[in-house]
């Protein structure tokens, strides 16, 4: 069984992000909403990098 350390899934220049949190009762201004959206974009980007690292590590190809 192959194993992967969590720190091997992202390039070293990345700082791992977690899922953005939504605070309050929904009364956010545009700047706050943009920040939440940008944080989600970064999270999705990092998840894609992790997925690719796992596929590469285990020599998996996805064919359509």
Which helices and strands occur, and which strands form pairs?
Layout: H1 30-57
What would you note in describing this structure?
- This protein is mainly alpha-helical and 64 residues long.
- The protein is 44% helix and 0% strand.
- It has one helix and no strands.
- The chain has one helix at 30-57.
- The protein starts with 29 loop residues before the first helix and ends in a 7-residue tail after the last helix.
- The mean pLDDT is 89.
Which features does this protein show?
64 residues, mainly alpha, 44% helix, 0% strand
Mean pLDDT score, rounded? 89
Let me know the number of strands. Answer: 0
Oligomeric status of the shown chains? single chain
Helix proportion range: 40-55%
Unreliable residue runs: none
Strand residue percentage: under 5%
Q: What characteristic shape results from the CA principal axes?
A: elongated
Rg over CA atoms, rounded to whole Å, is 16 Å
Structural class: mainly alpha
